[in-house]
Write a structure and sequence with these properties.
Blueprint (H helix, E strand, L loop, with lengths): L2 H11 L5 H17 L3 H5 L4 H22 L4 H19 L6 H13 L3 H15 L8 H23 L5 H21 L1 H6 L7 H6 L7 H6 L3 H23 L11 H17 L12 H13 L4
Helix pairs in contact: 2-4, 2-6, 4-6, 4-7, 4-8, 5-6, 5-7, 7-8, 8-9, 9-13, 9-14, 13-14, 14-15
Length: 302
């Protein structure tokens, strides 16, 4: 039998996805498209099955995040997140009910995605759903980052096909911290409008910021020093991720590189703008984000 004939027979014998599976994949893809996330550029470099898996993981993150950020009261949000916990249990029993759960069914099996990381993601959303986080301790903030960002990083590494190792974990968790801390600094004003202040209590106390609410804290003349300290922590996390990359094949984690490049650029712009102008938003032109994402996906400056 020729190679061509064998490939033809293999395709003919392949099991076509069910209408339910196709609908679930389309749903996950639509969630990603609606989000406008920078991560989509990294997803596009993946092979088809890995790309579908990342769409499904992202859809899960987006949907539980929408619960936490929604307008319902805390009890109603927590009830919805309890139902997502049940859906994770059903997913790992092979019987998910939601479209997102069905989209995750094949990736969980194919890439051995760990259940505990999905549960950690929900725990992070529960922290937000219970009410606005205001000046958490540094330990609580890092506990939060491990859940809302670190879990995504470790799930992504499985999908990318990165080898399971301490170095891979260090890269994933360091980059996750860098992205989340940068996101916190970028969105200080937006979060304050929701009553949230993610700057850790130790940094605020160090600089005499003892404001009663988030808006008041943002107006405090010493807030810039606390923000700079958190910016230094974000920069150190980026350096740790780069150090881990020296012992990895960066091409294996290529999908993460566009996010790394874009968020490093955000942190650079925030620093250049000055921490005394913390309430002023920093936006990156779409063309610049695209150029940076492509550069990091093709030949990252390591």
């Amino acid at each position: 039998m020729t190679v061509g004939a064998a490939q033809h027979r293999s395709r003919a014998n392949a099991v076509a996805p069910t209408p339910s599976a196709r609908r679930a994949r389309a749903h996950a893809r639509a969630v990603v498209a609606r989000s406008g996330t920078s991560f989509v550029w990294g997803m596009r470099v993946l092979a088809k099955e890995r790309r579908r898996a990342m769409y499904a993981v992202y859809a899960f993150c987006r949907e539980i995040d929408d619960v936490a950020d929604g307008t319902k009261n805390p009890d109603a949000k927590l009830d919805e997140l309890v139902e997502w916990r049940r859906e994770v249990n059903r997913l790992f029993e092979g019987e998910p009910k939601t479209l997102t759960g069905r989209a995750l069914l094949d990736p969980v099996r194919r890439f051995h995605l760990p259940k505990e990381e999905f549960i950690l993601l929900i725990e992070g959303m529960e922290m937000d759903a219970k009410g606005p986080m205001r000046a958490p301790s540094l330990g609580e903030l890092m506990h939060y980052c491990r859940r809302v960002a670190g879990a995504v990083g470790l799930l992504s590494m499985r999908v990318f096909g990165a080898p399971k190792s301490d170095t891979s974990d260090k890269f994933a968790l360091s980059l996750a911290n860098a992205l989340q801390l940068t996101n916190i600094l970028r969105d200080l004003g937006e979060d304050a409008a929701r009553g949230r202040l993610y700057l850790p209590r130790e940094l605020l106390d160090r600089h005499g910021v003892h404001a009663a609410d988030a808006d008041e804290a943002l107006r405090h003349p010493n807030l810039e020093h606390a923000a700079k300290d958190l910016g230094d922590m974000a920069a150190a996390a980026f350096r740790d991720a780069r150090q881990a990359l020296h012992d990895l094949d960066w091409r294996v984690v290529r999908p993460a590189m566009p996010m790394m490049g874009v968020y490093e650029l955000y942190l650079d712009r925030l620093t250049a703008r000055g921490w005394d102008r913390i309430a002023e938003p920093v936006a990156l032109p779409k063309a610049l984000k695209l150029f940076t994402a492509l550069r990091y996906a093709i030949d990252p400056p390591l």
